[in-house]
Design brief:
The structure holds two protein chains of two kinds.
Chain A lengths: L1 H15 L1 H12 L4 E2 L2 E2 L19 E2 L19 H26 L13 H9 L6 E3 L5 H7 L3 H9 L22 E2 L8 H11 L7 E6 L6 H12 L4 E7 L2 E2 L2 E2 H4 L8 H5 L2 E6 L3 H18 L3 E6 L18 H10 L2 H11 L5 H24 L18 H16 L12
Helix pairs in contact in A: 1-2, 3-4, 3-5, 3-13, 3-14, 4-5, 4-11, 6-14, 7-8
Chain B lengths: L1 H13 L3 H8 L8 E4 H15 L3 E5 L15 H5 L4 E3 L4 H13 L3 E5 L10 H8 L2 H4 L9 E6 L14 H5 L5 E3 L4 H13 L4 E6 L6 E4 L1 H4 L11 E4 L4 E5 L2 H15 L4 E5 L2 E3 L3 H11 L2 E4 L8 H11 L11 E3 L10 H7 L3 H13 L1
Parallel strand pairs in B: 2-3, 2-4, 4-5, 5-7, 6-7, 10-11, 10-13, 13-14
Antiparallel strand pairs in B: 1-8, 6-12, 9-11
Helix pairs in contact in B: 1-2, 3-9, 5-6, 11-15
The chains are: A alpha/beta, B alpha/beta.
The structure holds thiamine diphosphate and magnesium ion (MG).
Thiamine diphosphate (TPP) sits at the interface of chains A and B.
Chain lengths: ~425, ~350
Amino acid sequence: MAFDKVLKNVINKCLKQPKLLRCLSTHFKHDIEDHVGSKIKWTSTLDFVSPDCFSPIPTYRVLDSRGNILNKFEEPAIENATLEKMYKDMILVNTMDKVLYESQRQGRISFYMTNYGEEATHMGSAAALDLNDLVYGQYREVGVLIWRGFTLSEIMNQCYGNCLDPGKGKQMPIHYGSKRLNFVTISSPLATQIPQAAGSAYALKNQNRVVMCYFGEGAASEGDAHAAFNFAATLDCPVIFFCRNNGYAISTPTEDQYRGDGIAVRGPGYGITTVRVDGNDVLAVYNATKAAREFCLERSKPVLIEALTYRVGHHSTSDDSTAYRSQKEVDERIQNDNPVKKLRLYLENKNLWNEEKEKEWLHLTKRNVLEAFNAAEKILLPKWTEMFTDVYGVIPHHLRKQMNEMEKHLENYRDHYPLEKYST
Amino acid sequence: MARVAAVRMLNAVTSKYANTNCRTLSMTSVAKAKEVAVRDALNAALDEELERDDRVFLMGEEVAVYDGAYKVSRGLWKKYGDKRIVDTPITEIGFTGIAVGAAMAGLRPICEFMTFNFAMQSIDHILNSAGKMFYMSAGRVNVPIVFRGPNGAAAGVAAQHSQCYGAWYAHCPGLKVLSPYSAEDARGLLKSAIRDPDPVVILENEMLYGVKYPLSDEALSKDFLIPIGKAKIERDGTHVTIVSHSKGVETSLLAAKELQAIGIEAEVINLRSLRPLDFEAISNSVKKTNHLITVEQGWPSHGVGAEICARVMESDTFFHLDQPAIRVTGADVPMAYAKALEDASLPSPADIVDVAKRILST
Ligand SMILES: Cc1ncc(C[n+]2csc(CCOP(=O)(O)OP(=O)(O)O)c2C)c(N)n1
Ligand SMILES: [Mg+2]
């Protein structure tokens, strides 16, 4: 009754304004189906959406834990040499991590982070990319660089900050970068790479390249991550957001980092095509990344990949993880869900690898790693003038003045300084 | 009374700092001062203030289960639990905003940054919300919050982890900015900051966390507070005034020792507070020594030293200077990783000695 009355009033008002009546009449014919661009589905049931009313996004895998193919149609056609390289590079990363981690313990470098447990995320994704694609890393992706051709010497020189370090001793250890390999120098403040990757992808649209952006599930909490997802979606950026969900952010386990179905579930929320993969299954990571890359290029749109893996090592050389997780937990992961072992079993099943090759490769990598390491330690330090260069494109007057003062000072007091250690 | 006693017993059982706590309760003076590391002084101050006021809580990355990235909150989570010691996801802008909101609603958050470099993510909440809310609400909403964490250069962590934010924060009205040097500073300033009704930024120094300094019985008292805005004369002298803060005070004291050997008596002023700045202490000292050197790890342009020199120029202190005041600062470049470049980027005692000799010999 009351409703009729209201309606009458409205219609009376509208009669005085014919334009309004027209609007009103179409409204009665059919509901609007679109809210300024986004679709609407009407309901007369008052239903809140609970996070529990979705089942978890499934995790894609190709291999079982014994290295057997689960579904033969999913087995990627990767050349034998490439498969072998994947495995060899994993061992190389492990060997290198061991040496550099120990060298930090001995005080020879100031800082290091290992990659143990995440080898498959590196090799599987790197192998599916093109060298021309631009890569942004977080810091625990050295395998990607190695895959792309970063040499052991380049790694060691960077960690030592010697005069052959392309970064000229200006950046912390493991903050690698390589223009040649399209790998953007690592930045310490978390998550800054994520919106920057979206921005680069925006700039590189329609050039048959994608941008690959790695980040941890911890970094995904930063505001930058959310901004990046939204912008990449609305600006149609060809970027792959690759989240290495390794269970921890230093001591913080995922259950304290986020609620809900991990990082993957955020993708659809931002309108981003998403997949979750077993990050310890190199073939699954490869397939997912390859498909994501094709999708990015074809549609000029972002993709989110969440790779489930496990950080086997301490967070960094500043961390002791026994304070917050049990050795048993770590051992069980190494035993039951080991990406390197899984690939080895797969290769052995295909007769591509055996104990003899293993021994030979281990021996060779150890030798190569130690050689590069020892060589880097002996290389001269960057010239002291590096302190003043690269602040600006052209050295400003006040810095040049100070540099000249320092030069004079060093001339006068050369006996007091170990100048022989510096390159000239 | 009974509650206090019970808590005291709890301290004795659970706290690593049981000894410290017991000492604070004794009223008899002990001749020899106790040596306490800055980290432990901060820890005890947090412990006492958490105990004193249940509106106080600590929030930040890794502060609870992990005891803090630099172990400043060691044992506090075990003692106070999840409600008072809160681990957060890695979202500085998020937990800073939450802490500011909690402060506006009447709690007293202590917001720990893993380093002040990461507080850059939160700068809007610190300046635009915490720093201005009292003014914007015409005095109706105050924000009793403490932002703290290590500031300045650590060792071997390069450009993005090594810079001094002293000048940044001290630039902004609405904030109080403290920069402790010794264990006494750390303890007294933190306690004052927690009890203060306004937002206070405490710039600690990672390199000083492990350094031990004597704490007198007075400083060990539970109600030991250092007034915000007052400097401390660390060393008396008559020939030259050296003004510094944080780690720079250590460098200045080392320089003063070297200068003493050549007959120069330097007066070393530890600012303790960058905003408000105790200009009176500086002025009084300059009137006595007629020479001024400022020392800081931060960059020279628009820095703490620049501010001090400007205030000298603007006041009658200027007429007491026999020579131009000189700033000794960090080099005007981002911090490099390589140790040799890092060392060359920071002020050393030799730099101060050079400057002192130069202005005193002409
Ligand atoms: C803005 C910012 N906040 C905090 C840190 C300190 N920090 C460095 S790594 C890290 C954990 C990151 O975890 P995650 O993203 O999961 O990567 P993972 O280490 O697991 O590979 C933290 C908190 C930082 N570097 N930058
Ligand atoms: Mg992680």
